[in-house]
Amino acid sequence: MFDPREKIALFIDGANLYATSRALGFDIDYRKLLEHFQAKAYLLRAYYYTALIEDQEYSSIRPLIDWLDYNGYKVVTKPAKEFTDAAGRRKIKGNMDIELTIDALELAVAQSADHFVIFSGDGDFLRLVEALQRRGRKVSVISTLASQPPMISDDLRRQADHFIDLATMRNEIGRNPAERPARRIEAQHDMDADDEAL
User: Domain containing 25 — which CATH number?
Assistant: First the structure.
């Protein structure tokens, strides 16, 4: 599937990858993810796309974004839009499809990358995959069929040259549960203590 002579570029739809890994019950170790692909071929670029809520004093994703930015990823962000739906519920919209698509097409036009790896199951990327393939580029899509419902569009999975189920990558790119931040463990202990008190 990967040729060590080819140049590959990773395009990570941050929100989609987060939802997929959560559905599979593991966290991504982004250092291991880079190392995994660097071992397979020449890794030209790794893009990570996410929308940020700007008016929040502290965003839980900010430490990850900063770490990625300093550790080999090209981070692309934009402000999320906040709105109220018809039922009066507060919603946040932060779709990064256009940014990802433009960056991928620019690399294809410049003939910089041979193999495009898209971390998303979003069917909206079907046309991008087709456009990259028309330019003679190989496209792999990473998502999962192992969740209920599956996190990948059937049309996108069929169009890709290769589909890689994220579930099969757990051992290579998953974070060791022992490496999770202490506050999560402490919070779990607090919940366990509350359960015992009941």
Answer: 3.40.50.1010
Cα–Cα distance measured from residue 20 to residue 145, given in angstroms and rounded to the nearest whole number: 10
Residue 100: half-sphere exposure toward Cβ, Cα within 13 Å: 30
**Domain-embedded: residue 131:** yes
Encoded tokens for 24: 């599979």
pLDDT per position as a tens digit, 66-116: 999 999 999 999 988 877 888 888 777 778 999 999 999 999 999 999 999
- Give residue 187's domain range: 7-197
Residue 115 belongs to a domain: yes
Q: Is 184 left (phi over 0), alpha (psi -120 to 50) or beta?
A: alpha
- The pTM for the full model equals 0.85
Q: How far is CA 99 from CA 8, 163, 179, in A?
A: 18, 22, 32
Query: What is 20-39 written as a DSSP string?
Result: HHHHHT--B-HHHHHHHHHT
* Residue 13 belongs to a domain: yes
Which parts of the chain are beta strand (E)?
7-13, 42-52, 74-79, 81-84, 90-93, 115-119, 138-143, 162-165
pLDDT digits (tens, 9 = 90+) for 64-77: 999 999 999 999 99
Q: Do the domain assignments include residue 2? A: no
